[in-house]
Design brief:
By secondary structure, this protein is mainly α. It has a domain at 1-128. Helix content is 80%, strand content 2%. The protein contains 10 helices and 2 strands, in the order αααβααβααααα. It has helices at 3-40, 42-49, 51-57, 72-101, 107-144, 163-180, 183-192, 198-203, 205-219, 224-264, and strands at 65-66, 161-162. It has a two-stranded parallel sheet with strand order 1-2. The chain is flat, with a radius of gyration of 24 Å.
């Protein structure tokens, strides 16, 4: 290879690196701006996240939280701001990734990829909403049911949760449900790539159910309510994925048939 050929390959590489740097800077700035906003309103956001606890307890006055170290609540607010910043800045980051990758894709590949870019945050929001309105209140009711009123020779046992541990619990559940709700996106992408098909998904259904419950046991707190609350929607999403993959296969078969008829003519 001549020196001119080497220099010619360096130019596009430098252009890609400059563009990548620009995309990264925009993503980081978006995350930092979202972090600053979330940290400013961290107290209000934390109170919003307490609503599932309030639903389980019956009222806001019925619950008590504490922090046992001077810096604990401050660190909790930082964690909350980082979690919120990641959540808020995701559309910007995903858009920057798409804009960086899109020029290297064919038009039909871009049109096929774009719906997944939209579906990913929507499914994550659905998972987060399920945690907020269903899974977390059920889990907190279960934990609150373990309290002991005391009297008649028994000690009083009351749940006084730590702010950091409550935030860790609800963040873990939101992340776990958000990831598991991506099942249709992951499976349909694999189907489009030709790695799996609907027949394979149907044949592996029983194994998938076992794996889903195993993952739910790992990702959720050690109680049956949370595990079932995560596993059942994920199994339903698996079934929905089979339906979507069948639709993709049907459309592909129709397109291939139309192309074959066109060639025959």
């Amino acid at each position: 290879m001549s020196q001119a050929d080497i220099d010619a390959t360096k130019a596009p590489l430098m252009e890609h690196l400059v563009e990548l740097r620009s995309r990264l800077i925009k993503s980081i700035l978006g995350f930092v701006a979202a972090f600053a906003i979330c940290f400013t309103f961290a107290g209000h956001i934390f109170n919003i996240l307490l609503v599932p606890y309030e639903i389980a307890a019956g009222s806001a006055e019925a619950i008590r939280l504490q922090y046992t170290a001077p810096q604990e609540y401050f660190i909790t607010q930082i964690k909350l701001a980082m979690f919120g910043a990641g959540f808020i800045s995701f559309p910007l980051v995903a858009t920057q990734i798409y804009k960086f990758v899109a020029p290297g894709l064919y038009k039909n590949e871009r049109s096929a990829f774009f719906p997944y870019l939209i579906a990913t945050p929507i499914l994550f929001l659905m998972g987060a909403g399920f945690v907020y309105f269903v899974a977390m209140p059920l889990a907190m009711r279960f934990f609150l049911s373990m309290q002991q009123a005391g009297g008649d020779g028994h000690a009083s046992i009351e749940l006084i949760a730590k702010t950091s541990e409550y935030l860790s619990l609800i963040m873990t559940l939101i992340f776990a449900f958000g990831i598991c709700f991506q099942t249709p996106v992951i499976l349909t992408l694999l189907a489009r790539a030709g790695f799996i098909d609907s027949a394979w998904l149907i044949s592996k259904r029983r194994y998938a159910i076992v794996v889903v419950f195993a993952i739910a046991a790992v990702l959720t707190p050690p109680d049956v309510i949370s595990q079932v609350a995560l596993a059942v929607p994920t199994v339903l999403l698996y079934e929905a994925s089979i339906f979507v993959v069948k639709m993709i296969e049907k459309r592909k078969a129709e397109a291939d048939k139309a192309g074959g008829d066109g060639d025959a003519e």
